[in-house]
Amino acid sequence: MFKLTRRSFIKTTAATALVGHIPSLQAQNLSTGETGAMVKANEFIRLNWLEGKTPQVLTGATVGVPWPRGKISKSQQFQLINQDGKDLPTQSWPLAYWPDGTLKWTAHAVAAGVSLGSELQVKPVAKTAPPSENIVSVKQSKDGYLIDTGVIVCDVAAHGAQFIRSVQRDGKDIMRNGHLVVITDDQPDGESGTTRQQNYISNISQVSLEQHGPVRAVLKVEGMHKDAKRAWLPFVVRLYFYAGADTIRVMHSFVYDGDEQRDFLRGIGLRFDVAMRDALHDRHVRFAGENAGLWAEGVRNMTGLRRDPGPAVRNAQLAGLACPPLSQFPDVIQRLIHLVPAWGDYTLSQQSADGFKIRKRTKSGYGWVEAAWGHRSPGTGYIGSISGGVAFGLRDFWQRHPTQLDIRQAHTDTAQVTVWMWSPDAPAMDLRFYHDGMGMETHDQEREGLEITYEDYEKGFGSPMGVARSSEITLWICAATPSREKLVQFADAIQTPSQLVAKPSHFLATGVFGGLWSLPDRSHPVKAALEDQLDFRFNFYKEQVEQRHWYGFWDYGDIRHTYDLDRHEWRYDVGGFAWDNSELSPDLWLWYSFLRTGRADIFRFAEAMVRHTSEVDTHHLGQFAGLGSRHNVQHWGCSAKQLRISAAVYRRFYYYLTADERIGDIMHSLIDADKKLESTDPARKLKPREDISNIKAHAGFGTDWGSLAGNWLTEWERSGDVRYRDKILTGMRDIAGMPHGFFNGNSFAYDADTSHLINVFGNRASASHLNAVFGAVEIFAELVTLTDEPRFVQAWLQYCELFNAGKQEQINALGMPHGAGNALRNGHSRLTAYVAWKNKNPALAQRAWREFFGNRGVPGPLLKTTRVQGVNSLNPFDEVPWISTNDTAQWGLAAIQNLALIGEYIPSMADLKKMDATDND
């Protein structure tokens, strides 16, 4: 027992009354707002900018909005309105439906170049008039598509290498020949001899028009990277166009399907050409730096010369404006200008999170000159002239290092730009497994490895086959060189895209995501302390990302699993203690934290995690397609390929809030993941307690079937396809029909052909501490409200009540203890809270709070960090010795859900003192 925990907590808590009483969850689940009134079809839903300020540059935006059950017809139309009450050009579409067919989530797109303000409103309306201005049009031909935003016209090819044939503005070609490039090495370095490189370019297999306006158009380009002999590295590139926009948003995704022993990626990039029409001194190069900095030069610089061209020339070039005609230059400049070097090639290379370098040269074959250095570049550049050019940027540029921006041949009629998502200046990407197996050949030996390093190793299972990564690029098609201030605004917009969101009170009122949260409430001293703890834990991890440099192409978005106090280091190199890979649901902790607070920093943290865990931690093709990899030194290294990691339950928040098509694709790809249970049995290394020779596959109820239920629920509500509802209902009824329901063994036999769960444990009762902590609590809360299966509800409530119950209570109900002990007792307190709320049982509510506070519930004096620096650390950082990601995720979910479910029964200070005294007896 941690005897200092509650006593110290009591000493350090202070009452802070900031908000009024929050209605009970029972009221919230009736789809009531803060005032208790039903959300009506003709009411406005307020939308705010996530970062709290009106964007300086708006290239168009899309937002997901939830609606209460049974209130909004699937045929309902919507209108976006700005803060001045003016109707905006609007495009709306459904994202999800309630079981009765009414709308659950809708998406709404707003055009660029319209007056928005700090707040928008979305309103259900009887009829929406098609916009007469600010529209995007799409024309299709056998060769491709022509997209006109009203500002730019983009010609997209249906086949070949260049998917962007050209982009025009004001009738002039500005950009041409957009395609993908890949460079590979046949070895990671030159130690074994000469390294041979190979170049591949994109080859289109299919182009699909996913949306065709009037406000937003989306093209999906699919293909492979190809040379004369080989096609590999499948890619998907989505091109986004908004009415009134001069930008193209590019979402690039690729899947690794090579041989990690010989296919070492050296560069992955998007390449295109830019027309250069003007004199060399009227051509401009820009790279954004940090803190609103900008590196800005001319292709042929007119400053610093021995003979001064005059302030009119110098000032114009520096501002990116047209210089006076050459005939107005001083005679000596006119006569000798051809001897001023023209610099054709430029590179900004970000090789680490802490340093970038800019270099330039006159042309290929001549030496590079190092031009500038900096810390963290936002990854935005520009090449063009007074007649137009292209600004380009890669989101998370320094966070996803090594990255690079190249400009080549700017001194010719056509400049070439490559936005490198993996920099060719960096060492080749080495995806090989990090050890040789250390003699582990059998499952018995592998279990011994698990015993010492917590690594679930199996030969051949640490392959990167099928892992993926997506990158977001923005292209600005400019009529002229933008001002320095505008380029800085572009850089900010690329790194922090404008995102609209509804208010937390609206999310809560609609009952989406199970409604297992409440708005922050500091009116009670203990509640205030819990809110402090929630803030502390998130802020700590946010700072750890920076202090520990959890950055890099494959790493950014993940966090570490367990801390090593002796080394003052997270256990980055110790088997299963290294990268977290969604273990015990930190994703859910973050998303529920955002829903209840609306904090932008939590959203952005969770967004990076979604991008990472949905792609890097998940296999998208090959033997393990549809499965994720358990925590490991390498994200794909663990042999536990499991549904609990790839699960849609972790991704659907982001999808519904943003309507992101890539995440939608990933979730859809999981609908048949149950078929992988047979070929990759999660129980294959366990010694069976019964004859399982005729069992095709096992499924744990939470780690496997709960994940499947989340996948199917998401597909059902997105598509309305009742086949996936029926799969869920089949499993719900099978579990309800077991002798002990959810306690009928740690896993069931599973038949993927029929979706049936089969009892293989007879009348024995048992439980696993992991079954409820990978989204099962949250998904089952939704299933209880969305389906009518009272026996399933009864079985689930039994599990919730008995998991943390005393042994005698377990024996009385099950005939035997379930055997899970007190594992994750704090996190499981939310199960007790759920049944207490559901059955209106104050005694169980009080028991739930005892469980929550009884195991390091609120470590008061430890709401502090210790600064480690000097010889004990490479860099200064803050340390919390007791913290772990498992504990944080489960503590956070329990705190959030207990406050919502049984907040009215929260112990007083006096109660906590009594609990503390009892512990000391």
TrEMBL record:
PROSITE patterns from the UniProt entry: TAT (PS51318)
PcRGLX/YetA-like C-terminal alpha/alpha toroid domain boundaries: 497-906
Domain (PcRGLX/YetA-like N-terminal RIFT barrel) ranges: 45-124
Pfam families the record matches: PcRGLX_1st (PF19501), PcRGLX_2nd (PF21345), PcRGLX_3rd (PF21346)
Domain of life according to the entry: Bacteria
Residues in PcRGLX/YetA-like central beta-sandwich domain copies: 136-491
InterPro entries: PcRGLX/YetA-like, PcRGLX/YetA_2nd, PcRGLX/YetA_3rd, PcRGLX_1st, TAT_signal
UniProt keyword annotations, A-Z: Signal
Protein name: Tat pathway signal sequence domain protein
The species this protein was found in: Undibacterium hunanense
